[in-house]
């Protein structure tokens, strides 16, 4: 079984550039003329991007729900990817930490406010 979370974005081309240039994903496909849907992938993780008209979140959503995740991507160990992103100067919503339930996680915020959690075992 696999999952492909769908993230809503306001500018599909800008979102694709963020995921490819900043986070090292590749474009799986882009659909529409102009494009309104795309998939980005890295290793076994896939995210579907869907363009919406207007802001993705209303103006006070992040104030009320500061840590609401849009997607979680799992990997064996989050630390190497965290260090890669850190070296590339990616801004983190949450830096690498070990959660009370044992997972090691970090969270990145995309340009539309989607929070993507990368989670692995604490080793």
Can you put this structure into words, describing what you see?
- The chain is of the alpha/beta class and 123 residues long.
- It has a single domain (6-55, 67-121), classed as 2,3-Dihydroxybiphenyl 1,2-Dioxygenase, domain 1 (Roll).
- Helix content is 20%, strand content 41%.
- The strands form two sheets. The protein has a four-stranded mixed beta sheet with strand order 1-4-3-2, with helices on one face. The protein has a four-stranded mixed beta sheet with strand order 5-8-7-6, with helices on one face.
The name of the CATH topology is 2,3-Dihydroxybiphenyl 1,2-Dioxygenase, domain 1
- Helix fraction bin: 10-25%
How far apart are the first and last residues' alpha carbons, in Å? 24 Å
What's the quaternary structure here?
Answer: single chain
Sequence stretches where pLDDT stays below 50 over 5 or more residues: none
Give the averaged pLDDT, no decimals: 94
CATH homologous superfamily annotation: 2,3-Dihydroxybiphenyl 1,2-Dioxygenase, domain 1
Instruction: Please list the strands of the largest sheet in the order they lie side by side.
Output: 1-4-3-2
Order of helices and strands: EHEEEHEHEEE
Shape: globular
Number of strands: 8
Number of separate helices = 3
* Sheet of most strands: 4 strands, mixed
How many structurally independent domains? 1
Structural class: alpha/beta
CATH first level: which class?
A: Alpha Beta
> Rg, please?
14 Å
> How large is the share of residues in beta strands?
35-45%
CATH architecture: Roll
């Amino acid at each position: 079984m696999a999952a492909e979370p769908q993230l809503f974005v306001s500018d599909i081309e800008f979102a694709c550039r963020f995921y490819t240039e900043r986070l090292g994903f590749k474009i799986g496909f882009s659909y529409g003329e102009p494009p309104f849907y795309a998939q980005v992938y890295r290793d076994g993780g896939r995210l579907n991007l869907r363009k919406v008209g207007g802001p993705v979140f209303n103006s006070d959503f992040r104030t009320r729900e500061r840590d609401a995740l849009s997607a979680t991507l799992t990997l064996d160990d989050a630390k190497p990817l965290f260090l890669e992103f850190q070296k590339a100067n990616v801004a983190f919503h949450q830096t690498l930490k070990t959660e009370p339930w044992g997972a090691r996680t970090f969270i990145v915020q995309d340009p539309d406010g989607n929070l993507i959690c990368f989670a692995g075992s604490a080793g």
